[in-house]
Amino acid sequence: MRVIVTNSYDEMSKEAAKIVAGQIYLKPDSVLGLATGSTPLQMYKKLIAVHEMVGLDFSQVTSFNLDEYIGMSPDNPQSYHYFMKHNFFDFINIKPENIFIPDGMAKDIDAEGRRYDALIEEKGGIDLQILGIGRNAHIGFNEPDIKFEATTHKVKLDDETIEANSRFFENESEVPRYAISMGIKTIMLAKKVVLLASGSNKAEAVYNAVYGSISPSAPASILQLHRDVTVIVDKEAGALLQKHAQQ
Ligand code: PGA
Prior knowledge:
The chain is an alpha/beta fold. It has one domain (2-129, 139-194): 3-Layer(aba) Sandwich (Rossmann fold), CATH 3.40.50.1360. Helices cover 34% and strands 17% of the residues. Strands 1-10-9-6-2-3-5 form a seven-stranded parallel sheet, with helices on both faces. The chain has a three-stranded antiparallel sheet with strand order 4-8-7. 2-phosphoglycolic acid (PGA) is lined by residues 37-39, 132-134, 138.
């Protein structure tokens, strides 16, 4: 793992955007794995700026998002379809037919998971996967568990995740209880992974991802087994890493 501790959320976002932009310059038809949440927002803004200012070209890019709430239609403002459209896709020249997000409205979620994994494979696999991390060290919506779920699957969200995500809703009772998420194998098959984290409430999860024992109780810890992972954090999220390094 390569770990970059930056001075601020803005710097973290800039480093991440540089990696994504570099990937697209080197391979214009890259397949990106994308994440929602507050963490990647500024990275998306910076990529939009690079697109507008120097013409970073997304016309051949394909994207696969990590997850979606079950039961949420794409036009629901709380859905991840809506998030991606309004925070990123509407502002770049990616082709709508090259955008893939799990369908939270699918009648048969297991079949949707199989369809999604097959599509990723058909597109040649993910070249660069962007990840956030939950306070409980989840990646995508792979919550702490007694085993790693391999493929795209239905997830029951943890109470901690429901509480954390309630900030986007009127109240906690409105947060969906289930989601569909790429699995750990799907994520691990990405050629490169960039994990982002910002804020002191992520410090323990980041520490467990980088130095903790590899265990499904801290899903991000599996990334220690991936051969090309860059962890980019601000100094608050990296606080425990720095302590570890000084020991
Ligand atoms: P956040 O979510 O970026 O909104 O903190 C990250 C996650 O839960 O994976």
